[in-house]
Amino acid sequence: MPYENILVETRGRVGLITLNRPKALNALCVALIDELGKALDAFEADDEIGAIVLTGSEKAFAAGADIKEMAGKSYMDAYLQDFITKGWQRVSTVRKPIIAAVNGYALGGGCEVAMMCDFILAGDTAKFGQPEITIGTIPGAGGTQRLTRFVGKSKAMEMCLTGRQMDAAEAERCGLVSRIVPAADLVDEAVKTADRIAGMSRPVVMMAKEAVDAAFDTTLTHGLMFERRLFHSTFATEDQKEGMSAFAEKRQPNFKNR
Ligand code: CO8
């Protein structure tokens, strides 16, 4: 399918989506979000794909929602079109693992989309921020909620109230990103990481993802119970038998359901 605002390719069992609106630093216009949703739907439905990487350019992962497109909207436009919610949430509902590979600016909606992914790998040039306050609005796709859960109230509040950006080192220190790699190696490293995940049992990967996500939404007691039920249910899979037999036989596992 031809896309105008993103590039889509596969590398082995990894689906790679590159945001590609260089003239606007990958600002997330409606057309881009629509294309992103379609690409994610296609990878989700493709049995050959075990994990997804979402990236941008060396200068910008994405500099936010498209300010020029948003500027003239009325409250009624925003409310009736369910602006922000519609389309944007697709990234957070993908069941296959999705890694954000962030170089350069991840600002506003860009930071929010990165946080919707399962984890963020950062290039050493990455910069994260929620600058909406500087243009007279507030984050609308999770910036006040997910960022606070990642980095705690104090840092999230400072970033949302001042628009201050954090660099890759600070983002790693406070747990926003899983690790930092040299900018030039970022996409290859993200694909390598995704490929490793794609080599595991797919249902078990999906269960692990659901269990970690539950930690954001539930109490410890219910989270532990949910985890235990999923843990028990892995014992109904061929892949658990294969994984544990392979360990005992000192060989690599050959998972059937990848
Ligand atoms: N929207 C539209 N166009 C943009 C955006 C944007 N967010 N960011 C950059 N651009 C455009 C610029 O207008 C410029 O275009 P042109 O050449 O036609 O003037 C081009 O990209 C290059 O940008 P700059 O010349 O500004 O590049 P610099 O290197 O000087 O600066 C910055 C880079 C610092 C990233 C700067 O561009 C900037 O501050 N951008 C805006 C950042 C921002 O405020 N983001 C938040 C937007 S609001 C938001 O995301 C709300 C999210 C809510 C949820 C989602 C709702 C749909």
The CATH superfamily of the largest domain bears the name: 2-enoyl-CoA Hydratase, Chain A, domain 1
What percent of residues are in strands?
15-25%
| Count of DSSP-assigned helices | 13
What is the domain total for the residues? 2
Give the CATH topology of the largest domain. Answer: 2-enoyl-CoA Hydratase, Chain A, domain 1
Enzyme class: lyase
GO biological process, one term: fatty acid beta-oxidation
GO molecular function: enoyl-CoA hydratase activity
Protein name: enoyl-CoA hydratase
Could you explain the architecture of this structure?
With 258 residues, the chain is of the alpha/beta class. It folds into two domains: 6-198, 2-enoyl-CoA Hydratase, Chain A, domain 1 (Alpha-Beta Complex), CATH 3.90.226.10; 201-249, Orthogonal Bundle (Lyase 2-enoyl-coa Hydratase, Chain  A, domain 2). It is built from 13 helices and ten strands. It has helices spanning 30-45, 67-70, 75-80, 85-88, 90-93, 109-116, 146-151, 153-162, 168-173, 186-198, 202-214, 220-234, 238-248; strands at 6-11, 14-19, 51-55, 60-62, 98-102, 105-107, 119-123, 127-129, 166-167, 179-181. α11 runs antiparallel to α12 (220-234). The longest helix has 16 residues, at 30-45. The protein is globular. The relative contact order is 0.12. It binds octanoyl-coenzyme A (CO8).
